[in-house]
User: What shape does this take?
Amino acid sequence: MTTRWIAIVNPAAGHGKCRRQAEAELAALRTAGADLDVRNTEAPGHASRLAREAFEAGARDFLAVGGDGTCFEIVNGLAGSANPGARPRVATLPLGTGNSFLRDYGIVDAAGAARALLADARRTVDLVRCEHAAGTLHYLNIAGLGFAARAGAMTNRRFKSFGARGYVLAVIGCVARMRYPSFPVRLDGGKPDQRPCSMLSFCNSRYTGGTMMMAPAADAADGYLDVIRIGPMGRIRLLRSFPRIFKGTHVELPEVECSKARRVDFEGGATVDVMIDGEVLALALRSLEVAPGAIDVVA
Assistant: This one.
């Protein structure tokens, strides 16, 4: 039986790249035999509603046509469904800015993603449940605080049209205003950590910002978050060390600490900027918890 995919297209993804390329990419998939039901988004949050409505109507296979943010919306629509017993599968046709998650599986472009979809591939991966003061979110890739969130916000505001290179430009721009905030956290019920830091990242997968290997040891199916903590770093040292993130060797620096946790609890209740799967949101975080093997992806 042929799989029928609900293809949710975000025309704004990739600073309009998706609008320019989606029609041709979807036509190629159809020519190769894919059965697609295409639905276009019209505003932020629309992809979540489209996914939830289709899921509750019986659909189980979804194709995010866009970037990590489009996939993030679809995943949240599925996770917020009133039908929690059914199991969805999510594929991505990467036509966005960063397209980070699929890089863990060697998929770096739309052609590679199309091959995986046509092969009807399936991988079971973890989903991260993020509780905050106003509700619940879920993510596949990464949640970042501090420098990562500031750079993500600048990327979205000023450098979106540069693709993955835009995040590099944003990093350089944010260095001029370095801060060392404290985010009081407990990992798996341990002692609270209130030390100031440059940034904290809670990673389900390895990559962020396109080709930056934030958590080189992460495995999206191991039931754990990889927690990357970077302590205070001077501007010059940060700029000199920054290229190491593209190979994952930044974790060898003395300012960088790596640990694993199934659950992270936040104390204090302050609202902070959080970069979560490419989106920057103001959230009063309460906890992060891994839901092992909660979703299937195509990769």
Remarks:
- The helical segments are 17-31, 46-56, 68-79, 110-118, 147-159, 165-175, 235-241.
- The chain has seven helices and 17 strands.
- The mean pLDDT is 91.
